[in-house]
C-alpha cells in the first residue's frame, strides 16, 4: 500500500472494547462485527491493492440506529467510513484502522414506486439493477447503468455520482436523483428534494452531496427518476484501421445532432482480449472498434442507423454490422461488458484508470499512452466511453513481480496527468477516493481545494467522515476559516475606497 | 437593459469606483479587478449587492447595500467548440448573445433558461449567463433534459473571502472533487461572484410538434400529462393552461378553452412516429389540435417566460415546485381560500400562481405544499415592500437552515455578498 492514511488515534485504538460495547447497545444482535476473521470480508473494496481492517464493522438497519451511531462517533471523535456494496474502484470505502466501517447493506428495500410521478423511493443498499427490476414489469427502468450494476448500491452510486454506458444520453446519477435523506456526522437526519424538481428553493445541497464520496453525510434514502424504456434499441459495430478515424467518426455523429444511447470504443488489445473471451464476433483486424447503440422509436432508430452507417463509411470504416436481433445486440455488448474480466485473463492483474478528455484529444492521448507503455514496459488495453470522452485504460501488470505494481501506478498517474494536460480531468466516474487523492493538485490550485474543503467544514467540521479520502492534505477547519483579508485593514491601499 | 442600470453602468468605472454616488456601482472588467473589489469590500466590511445586468433584481429579497457589484462588463465567449458541445463565457455575457451564437451552429441551451423580462415588465434578453446559473433558471424541457445546474460543466468565481477558485472543467463526465459548480446553482450570488462559466450545448431538434388537448379540467390534464410522460414518446414539455389562461399565450390564437400541451422534438420520422402513437393513445381523452414548428416554439416560449402573468402589474406571482400529480390539488385547495390564477408546466409539477388580491398568502401556500408531500414556493414577483416582508424562498427546517448558514459563512464569513437576498 503506497498511500499514506491519517495516523490512527491511539486513544481510539485503546478504547476499542468500550467502543464495541457502546455500538452493540445501539445496534443489537449481529449488527456489530468485531472478530478479525469476519471483518476480513470488509478490508478492501474494488481497489484491491489497498487493504486495511477496520476498528469494527457496524451494519445498522434503521435510520435511527445510523443517527445514534454517528452521534456517538461524533461525540467520541471516532472516524466513520460509510460503505455500500464495496465495489468502489478508487478505494472510497477503504476502512481505517481506528474507524468504524458503517455498512448500509441491510437497507435493501424499495419503499415506494410512483409511476405517475416517474419516481421510486428506495433505501441506499438496494442495488442499481434492483431498482430496474422493481419497475420493469411496467416497462420502466432506472437509466444510469454502471457495469457493476448487479452489485453496486444506489447509495454508493449517489456517493460516487456513478455513470455508465447510457449516461451519454440519459445523464449521470446526479441528473437522475430527485431527492435524498441523509444523516450528518452529528446524527441529524436531513431531507433534500423529493418527487418534485429542483430539490430545494435554496442552495443545491443535493448537488454537493452527490459525488461527495461519503465525506459529507450518510445517505439513508434515495428518490430516483424512473423512465419508460425506449421502444427499441439496435447497435452497430464499426471497425476502423486507425483510432483517429474512429475518433473522427464519433465527432461527426455528435456534430450531426445524433446522441446515441451509448457509444463505446475499444482498441486492438481490448478487442482481442474480449473476442478471445466471449466470441462476440468482433473483427480482429482493426485498430479501433466502435459500438454505437441507438434507442427510441423504431422509426427513429432506423433513420439514425442509416446515418451512422454513412458517417462510418465516409470516415474509412472497414467493417460495419448492424444488429439484426436482440440476441445479436446483446452479443455486441457482451464483449464490451466483459472487457475487464477478459483483460483479467491475459494478465495476472490489471489496473483500471478513469480519466476524461475532450473527445478531439483522443488521438494525442492514445499516442501518449503508447509512449508511456513503452517507457514503463507494461501493456495497456483501452475501453472508452467515446461519446463523452471518458477513458478506461487497463494497465496490465503482475503484482507478484517485484516493482510491477509500483510501475503500474506510476504509469496510471502519468496517464491522468496527460488527461489533465489536454483539458480533461482525473476521474470521470470512479471517484477520487484514496487512489487519485494525491493527484488532486494536478487539477486544482490551493484555493480551489480550500473552497472544496470549506464545504466539508460546513458538513463535518471535525473531519470524522471518511478522512484520508479525496483531499491530499487535511486542513483544520479553524485554519481554513481564517480570513486572509483582514477586516478593518485595507488590503489594497491603492484601490479607491468605497 | 433597464434605464436605471444602463445609466449607472455608464457611470461605472472599472475597477475604480466613483466615490460620492449614494448607490455606487462597480463593474470590473477582469477577474483580478473583480477580486480586488471584493477584497476591498471585505476589508471595509461594506456589503455588496451582486448583479449581472440587474435583470433579476426583482427576484429574491431586496438587498439594501450602498454598493453594487455588476458583472455586466465581464463579457464575451471565451471558448466555443460546437463539435465538442461546449461553450465557456464570462459570467456577464448576455444569454441572448450566447443563444444567437450557438443558434448559428444549429445548437441550443437544452435547459431553456427562463427570461423573467416579460413578468417584470422589462424587455426580453437582458439576463446574463452568470445570472441564469445563480438562479438556476430552467424552462419546460426541464422534465426531460434537466435544469441549468445539470448543464454546467465548470466555473471560476470569487468567494466572499476574496479568493479566486475554480471547479469542474470542460468535459461532461467529471467527478473530481465536490461539484462546486452545482453548489453555485441557485445560490443567488450569496456564496461567490461567478466570473466564468462553462456549459454544455446541444444540437437543436430537427423538428417539433405540440399536441394540444382541448377542454380538459386541471385534474383530467394531470392524468393525461402523466400518461404522456410515462409513455415511451420522449415528451419534452407538458403544460396545462386552464380556461382563460390559454388565450394569453401565442398571441391569443388558442382562444379561451383550456389547452393541455405535449411537446415532441427530434428527427422528423421520429416525431411523426411518436405523434401517431400519442394521438392514438389520447384521442378518446380530448379533442386534439397541433402546433407545428414556429407556432409550437412561440407557444413554449410564452409558457417558459410566464407570459400569461406578464400583465404589467406587481401582483404577487409564485413559482411552486411539487410532485407533478399534486399540482392541481394545490390549486384546488388554494382556490377555497384565496382568489388565484394558475397555470402548470413540468407535467403539473411547476405551478405558476398569481395572487389576485395582492396578498402574498405565503403561509397558506406553503401549508398546502407540505400537506401534498412537500416541495417549495418562491415568490418571483412582488413589490419591494412585500418581498421585504415575506419569506421569498421556502423556509427550511431548522437543521437544514443551519447547514445552509454554515455553508454561507464558510464561503462568505464577513457577509459581504448579497446580504439578506436569500432571506
Ligand atoms: C467491475 C466493476 C465495474 C464498474 N463499472 C463502473 C461503471 O461503469 N461506472 C461507474 O461509475 N462505476 C463503476 N464501478 C465503480 C463502482 O461500482 C461505483 O463507484 C459504485 O457506485 C460504488 O457503489 P458501492 O455501493 O459499491 O459503494 P462502495 O464501494 O461501498 O462505496 C463507494 C463510496 O461511497 C461511499 N458510500 C457508500 N454508500 C454510502 C452511503 N449510503 N452514504 C454515503 N456514502 C456512501 C463510500 O464511503 C465510498 O466512498 C465499477 C466497479 C467494478 C468493480
UniProtKB/TrEMBL annotation, chain A:
UniProt protein name: Glycolate oxidase
Upper lineage: Bacteria, Pseudomonadati, Pseudomonadota, Alphaproteobacteria, Hyphomicrobiales
FAD-binding PCMH-type domain: residues covered: 50-229
Entry annotated with the keyword ATP-binding: no
Database matches in InterPro entries: FAD-bd_oxidored_4_C, FAD-bd_PCMH, FAD-bd_PCMH-like_sf, FAD-bd_PCMH_sub2, FAD-linked_Oxase-like_C, FAD-linked_OxidoTrans_Type4, Oxid_FAD_bind_N, Vanillyl_alc_oxidase_C-sub2
Species: Fulvimarina manganoxydans
Superkingdom per UniProt: Bacteria
Pfam families on file: FAD-oxidase_C, FAD_binding_4
Flavoprotein found in the keyword field: yes
PROSITE patterns: FAD_PCMH
Keywords: FAD, Flavoprotein, Oxidoreductase
GO molecular function: FAD binding; oxidoreductase activity
Cofactor: FAD
From TrEMBL, chain B:
Organism superkingdom: Bacteria
Entry's Gene Ontology molecular function annotations: catalytic activity; FAD binding
Annotated segments matching region Disordered: 1-24
Sorted UniProt keywords: FAD, Flavoprotein
Keyword Flavoprotein: yes
InterPro entries: FAD-bd_PCMH, FAD-bd_PCMH-like_sf, FAD-bd_PCMH_sub2, FAD-linked_Oxase-like_C, Oxid_FAD_bind_N
Gene3D superfamilies: 3.30.465.10
UniProt key word Membrane: no
Annotated ranges, domain FAD-binding PCMH-type: 18-204
Entry protein name: Glycolate oxidase FAD binding subunit
